[in-house]
Amino acid sequence: MAFYLRKGFNFGPIRINLSKSGLGVSAGVKGARLGVNSRGQSYVHGGRHGLYYRKNLGTINPQNKNSNPTNNKASLTEDEEIFTDTGLTYLPRSIEKPIVTIPPLFVKVGNTKLVLGIVLILIALFISDISIKIGLGLLGASLVFWNQQVKNKSKKFHQTAALLLKLEPDQQNSQNWQAHAHSLTTAEQERLAIHCASAWLEKQIQEGSILEIDHIKSFLPVASTLLDKMIISLYKDAVETVLADHQLTEEEEALISEMEKKWKIAPPIVQEEKKLIEKFRQIRNMQFTPLLAIGQNDSGDQIYFESEGRLLHLRVLDSWQQNRVRYKNMGYKLDMEGKLSISDKAFGITEGRNTRFYPNSQIEDIFLSAEYGVVEIFLKNRKSPVIISSPTLFEFSGVLNKVIES
């Protein structure tokens, strides 16, 4: 089957985002996303866990639409946020991916030696001493010739790379590799092989045609440790993709299973990903099964969910300004920790004698980000969302959405 990312899916009038990375699409940079945060700012986001980098591209205040252009320009702000994991959220272990560093494929060929060669030739034209004239002329000509040879070699490398990188799964074999790469140096082959491995594995996922990893390892000169990290990273990316629209199909599950088998993914990694897949499947199944009450509260309201959890808020830990850029160190702070519950009337948390509940009728949006271990519930007439973290975050989100639909 072809592997692709479908459009979003709504369970009902409430949007519940169940992607592993929250709202976002690829920004062309590995690990980076474009998105919109809870304050309506568009941003570029990169990084996973511990620290992340986020650059806000600006906020447009609709109340200023009738103001003059100068005020509109002033309303556009540029912030850079550094998010610190304060350890208050429950993060799925399976989100973490190995860091894969791939060297640049192409090396820029400068013109320094070409310019120097031309200068030497020009100088030689104005020197009367024949021996010096010939020496400078030959040296200049050799530099020009050397530069041209390097450029021709670089052009040939580009052409070879273009042919190899676009090979279909059924063409990814030692015969094609040898046919195109035999004239390259060992260093060039090793550099190109890393990029071929990445491109070929991604192509296998896209085409739904997974090859035995030992087949590629047998002829591509790539370090085994680097290739293993690349495989794990792509495998986790594939799982993230099938979960991004929370419409996990049997065909997608079969493709993931084939990757696990043929790419020889380590069993502990497979088990962690399968746990996450199962959580998403349970949320989806929950939308099509009756929701049963587990009890009643003192007011006689039906209780549908109870579990431990935390009520958090996102705040600026510290900030500074440099070169006209405003930097903010962001992190979650704890408001309350205790028992989360969802009834047919409200959801909230109880800590000893302290309680904080919010009417279900005020819910406008539910945003689940498994990557950060939180769910943001947006309420009417409230600027900042209610932020919840729990070891049963998936169930909490699914039940809350089901109650809203009911």
Automatic annotation (TrEMBL):
Residues 3-54 form the DUF4236 domain. This is DUF4236 domain-containing protein. It comes from Belliella pelovolcani. InterPro entries: DUF4236. Keywords: Membrane, Transmembrane, Transmembrane helix. The chain crosses the membrane at residues 114-146.
